[in-house]
Amino acid sequence: MVIWAVLVSQVLLYPGLDGLIVALNGPATIQAGMWFLVAEFAAFVAFAVVWGAMSDLLGRRTPLVVAGALGGAMSYVVLTQLPWLGIGFTGVLAVRIIGGAFSIGAFSVGITMLMDLSGGHGRNMGAAGIAIGLGAALGSVVGGQLAVVDPFAPVYFGAIILVGAGLLAATVSDSASAAAATSGAGLTDRVAGGIDVALGALRSTPALRIPYAFGFIDRLTAGFFSLVGVFYFGEVFGLDAAGVGIALALFFLPFALLQYPLGMLSDRIGRFIPVVVGSVGYGLAIIAVGVASTVELAMALMMLVGVAGAFVAPATMALVTDLCAPTERGVAMGGFNVFGSLGFLSGFLIGGFVVDATNYVTAFLVVGGLEIAIALIALPAVRRLSSQFPTPASSAD
What we know:
This protein is mostly helical. The protein has one domain: Up-down Bundle (Growth Hormone, Chain: A), CATH 1.20.1250. It is 79% helix and 0% strand. The C terminus is likely disordered.
């Protein structure tokens, strides 16, 4: 529920992004929207490992989730007040950075709490995927409807959702490993180690580079749709904020509903087919959306994108859990989210700059091609990991 709430609050802003930028005294361009999203995800990159390292060091996750959610809510409230205070778009970006630094704590440590549970890594990461997908689906639909009423309405509603998430998290018991709190490493050492993980350089588990690479590209595509998809459906097909929200939801809904069963499937058949075959199908579906001739076809293809993405996401996160020790899960998932956030950043930047320099079709070809390329390049490595874990480490806890 906490992970779901963070995604609802985040995606609420996307369908009406162009109108919100104008209301915040920014220019009505895709470049301004790009920097608005980049600011938050830059903070995700900087602070994901910090939160994970703190949770490993303390041996407690719940207080950090509460702090992250409430801090993110406060940043949303402050954001709505900036135009009345005469603060320009640069100040808006600064608040977005602060808000991102808090909200990534609730998100990343929340996923880590799922990693701490027994019952199957694929299944647990499928639960995270359902929360992510349903949160994004609801956020896109509701956000589009609210943005039609008032550009700030999604921001206020997002703050309320985050407060609720913080209060809910306070009722949850920790399942973190007590060994994490007594391992002897200080916060600085753990953050430094987490940065090494994020860079793919942990000597003990170099195989983490594989799920990190897929996480990077997968979230690059999500960042691409969050920015370019909004302007694409608005400019090419003439949809308003409510229509854009529905288009995004057509991706997020199947993406959410299939996460749990496909996560369990990856526990049974291994990670190779969901990760590699799913990525190829995902890339082809993305390209198809960009060359669709009608809005009806494009929106139908968005559902196919969601189905293909659901094959990849839980199996990729489950690979992280397969490969790391219980006492390193906070840092390992923090590293995964660092790479994922870098992917989001890249999706914003690549999408924004390619559309600005060429056109929407080229942008879809580039991003879909990157998804296919990572699957083909990493195919031998994923196959080796599958042979190492013919029956994934789903019951090791």
